[in-house]
Design a protein that fits this description.
The protein has 237 residues and is an alpha+beta fold. It folds into two domains: 82 residues, no CATH class; 120 residues, 60s Ribosomal Protein L30, Chain: A, CATH 3.30.1330.60. The protein has seven helices and four strands; from the N terminus they run H-H-H-E-H-E-H-E-H-E-H. A four-stranded mixed sheet has the order 1-4-2-3. Helix 1 crosses helix 3 and helix 3 packs across helix 4. It is rod-shaped, with a radius of gyration of 43 Å.
Length: 237
């Protein structure tokens, strides 16, 4: 019975050795080129002990080879898990950085909106004219972009004229001036629903009659960015 069992073990262990050697010369050379891992050494020792008990010296060799192969395979799996964990950690770090940048961008946008409210500028005109100068167009475009970035605001455009001429003429002239400014603001991104366009003519002029220098300040259009609260208060007053 013992002899028959030993004969059966011989071919079985031979098949195990053949399977280990089928890894090919390239893989064998790769394994020889690098030092064995801790798992590979443990597998080799365990395989050596089991093989010695199973088939004597020949079994010890087979067991050592098989144990080393299994140990190396386990080592590679552990290294792959470590690499995956490192990649996931790096991805989380990048995602956290992006979220931080986005929050900072939103905060800056809110600050921009708050800072841009209740800003006002004024555009002057020549006598009897409603044509905008090139410098004024550039300034209005910047004002429009700022109002667009501020979000929910109102942009009040108020046209004026000096007291020379009839009331009807001054009212129409101040309206044309206000419309010219509103047109540039709309082209700069301001929605038409955000605009409040007013024509005051010469009604608000405080210039003394014949004061030509004072008349220059009357020929203007003011542009004011107002928050909702300011707009509601103005409407109430």
């Amino acid at each position: 019975m013992s002899v028959w069992t030993t004969k059966l073990r011989g071919p079985a262990l031979g098949l195990t050795l053949a399977s280990a050697l089928l890894a090919g010369p390239s893989e064998a050379a790769e394994q020889a080129a690098k030092p064995p891992s801790k798992q590979e050494n443990m597998g080799m020792v365990s395989g050596l002990a089991v093989g010695a008990l199973a088939g004597g010296p020949f079994g010890a060799v087979i067991g050592a080879a098989t144990g080393a192969l299994l140990g190396d395979r386990y080592h590679k799996q552990q290294e792959a898990k470590k690499s995956l964990a490192a990649d996931l950690s790096q991805s989380k770090a990048v995602s956290s950085q992006l979220e931080g940048d986005l929050a900072q961008t939103r905060e800056q946008g809110v600050k921009l909106g708050m800072a841009s409210r209740d800003l006002e500028t004024s555009v002057g005109f020549r006598t009897g004219d409603s044509t905008l100068a090139d410098d004024d167009v550039v300034r209005l475009q910047k004002m429009g972009a700022l109002a667009n970035a501020a979000g929910k605001v109102k942009v009040r455009v108020s046209g004026y004229a000096d007291p020379r001429g009839s009331e009807q003429f001054n009212a129409a002239l101040s309206e044309r001036r206000a419309d010219a400014v509103a047109h540039v603001l709309i082209q700069s991104g301001v929605d038409a629903s955000q605009l409040v366009v007013e024509a005051h003519g010469a009604a608000d002029s405080k210039t003394a009659q014949g004061d030509l220098d004072g008349y220059a300040f009357d020929r203007r259009v003011t542009v004011k960015i107002e928050s909702d609260a300011s707009d509601a208060q103005v409407a109430k007053n």
